[in-house]
Amino acid sequence: MAAVPLVLRVLVTTRHMWTHRGPLQHLNGYILRLGKFSHQSKFQRKMYHYGTFPQGFSWGVSSSAYQIEGAWNADRKGPSIWDTFTQKPGSIPGNSSGDVACDSYHRLEEDFYMLRALRVKSYRFSLSWSRIFPNGRHPSLSQNGVDYYNRLIDGLLAYNITPMVTLYHWDLPQALQDLGGWENIDMINIFNEFCDFCFATFGDRVKFWMTFNQPHTIAWSGYGLGEIPPNVKNPGIAPYRVAHNLIKAHAKVYHTYDDKYRASQGGLISIALNADWIEPKDVNIFREVLAADRALQFKLGWFAHPIFKNGDYPDAMKWQVGNKSELQGLSNSRLPAFTEQEKSFIRGTADMFCVNHYTTQIARHATLRLSPQSYKYDHDLLEAEESGSPSTAITNQRAVAWGLRRLLNWIKEEYGDPEIYITENGVATDSKTTWDDTGRVFYYKTYIDEALKASDIDGVKVKGYIATSLMDSFEWLNGYKVGFGLHHVDFTNPNRPRTPKYSAHFYFRKDFIWSVSTSRWKRSQYLGQVCSHSSQSVQ
Ligand code: BGC
Known about the structure:
The protein is an alpha/beta fold. It has helices at 6-13, 16-19, 23-38, 42-46, 65-68, 81-86, 108-118, 129-132, 143-158, 174-177, 187-202, 215-223, 238-265, 286-310, 315-327, 340-346, 375-378, 402-414, 438-456, 502-508, 510-515, 520-533; strands at 58-62, 122-126, 162-168, 208-213, 268-274, 277-280, 353-356, 360-365, 381-385, 420-425, 429-430, 462-467, 482-483, 487-489, 498-500. Bound molecules: beta-D-glucopyranose (BGC).
């Protein structure tokens, strides 16, 4: 057979092309969503906007259990997959681990002190599943674990700080990994059992729940690339299967909350999805715009489309994975399908849109290889850094503030104008940065201003902003080499002293910065604050 270019083969030979919306419809959607920004000059993009967020806007900071708690085996806590991974020599730079981390399990008062000093309205933290159920199942319940979270929640409420609780921030009980982890469909009921217990136990006081943190990272980095636990390297199949289970597990937990707890507890529940903004390499070239749209659908849409739209995966994904699978000689798409019943169970299972955002990438079309099978190659595009923006302590995470406004607008248009909480946003500095983190102040100022533009100018319903993070902590594969904290933590000192960085003072004064920053007397008052607090340290 004469050599036929792959692109043509894709278009000519597949049965999927007739069953799903074709590329042009996606393109139209993208142009509609982005049209307002496509002619913005670089200068306009960077202009500063003065204004305020609406009344009741929720300012907060974040953490997660494995990153801060330490006490990895205290009081009957069971091991998680992160304990297993980090304790294996060579896994993390410097062989560091979360064994002690910030020791927050023993230092709640110090964490409260920082939160109060910041005057935040909310604190996002996660529950360590194996601290509550050491082997992942209810019969193993540890009252000590429950007591710890009760103390944390009660302490926050006593200081008028709203707890925002993530039920799963990556630290699966090892005993459940031994059953196959998220590849095992039984995990849907097992996770539901854990969440049901948490609603019953903490839901009288917790009114803001997130099921999973960044399911994309769990599925792709955990089961595709195999970089994070459980380190499964199966890039063509496992991420799709795992995501399928995660979406069903999320929906099940949402319904449990809805059916059993909402009426008496009156809280909200959602899922924290991560999304970079993806800008086309050239907004005037159709296929580059299409590639950027596809990238967003493959990352954010993978989870958001079923949950916020119609119970099903985005057309762009069904089209791409279906076609590639067929060209690979498979009889079924590697992307599993939901039944009609499952679709209606999944659709609408979130009360608000929670998004974690750090950076922007530039996408361009590329026809990628068929072998080996990979979620990544299924995208048919390449991504690059936004080279005009400042680099940060993490490669590939440039500070591209304007991307946040575009992302928020995209979410508004794509998902029917939901209420949006930015549940993570922040920047890394190297671990030597103990006080002077002006780069972080610049990052927060510019990113928050873009969120403000989205709210104030574009009418996006931005309801809250959570700075990542409260303090330097165990940064996963980066160990302690970088810190995202508003507070520095001295990890060489057994007392883990916490000290505010310059950015902590900035974040504390954000109200002033955004509303009346032109008045001179206020400016000197702010500088006075910075100076008077600069030696403050929590021991
Ligand atoms: C994770 C956070 C982490 C941050 C910076 C996010 O993807 O959800 O736990 O602190 O990245 O590494």
